[in-house]
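Thread: Newbie trying to understand structure tokens

Hi all, I'm a second-year student working on a class project, and my supervisor (Dr. K.) asked me to get a predicted structure for one chain before our next meeting. I've only ever worked with sequences, so writing a 3D structure as a token string is new to me. If someone could post the tokens and maybe explain what I'm looking at, I'd be very grateful. Here's the chain:
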Amino acid sequence: MEKVRMLSTLGLMGAMRSLSAAFEAATGIHVDADFAPTLALLKRMRAGEGADLVILTREGLNELIGEGRVVEGTAADLARSYVGLAVRKGAPHPDIATEAALRKTLLAARSVAYSRLGASGVYFAQLIVRMGIADEINAKATIVEQGFTAERLVSGEADLAVQQISELKQVGGIEVIGPVPHDLQTPAVFSAGRMVNAKQADAADRLLRYLASAEVVPVLRQSGLEP
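---
Reply by user tm_fold:
Sure, no problem. This is what the structure looks like when written as tokens:
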């Protein structure tokens, strides 16, 4: 069976599980996918790891285009993703609807889990500095090097988890409260492109066309992304 190798940011992991299966059924091309935070993927590709197709934040993809690693004309924006908060299943949902409410909720938390390498973690670290509560939050934060922050809710290490909503939804036993207020965030845009040294260029182009098509929209929405 023909294979296409894809490196993707964690934000699309949920959606890609069902989309890969649908693409394989329709084309007979198997998607060999590996998921990691954007910064980790950039590091791996700069160290020489090969792939046919990559899905990163738009900023990350633009860096690779600038370095001559991704074919500029193939770049496609697939989805928009907001950062949200989650609690353990059954726990009360604190108010995060306004900046004041969010500040109060974060300060009241025993520990907030956020990621070190993901776009959401970089954003959250800047947000708490902007809100003037970085020292208080970081003194009790549960920092996740890479992977899903909501797993720390299930293990009891934290009582609030911050990440892209599509990543929070990957974890069972938790509930997403909602997004950080929209006026406090710039959504991440996840974009795909074909690698310059792709071994399976035709298959990569077919997968790219499929991922940018209208038929994948319901799957993206269900996984917590906005097309």
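A couple of things are worth pointing out once you decode it. The first helix runs from residue 13 to 27. Strands lie at 2-9, 29-36, 53-57, 76-81, 83-88, 112-115, 142-144, 160-164, 174-179, 188-194. Feel free to ask follow-ups in this thread.
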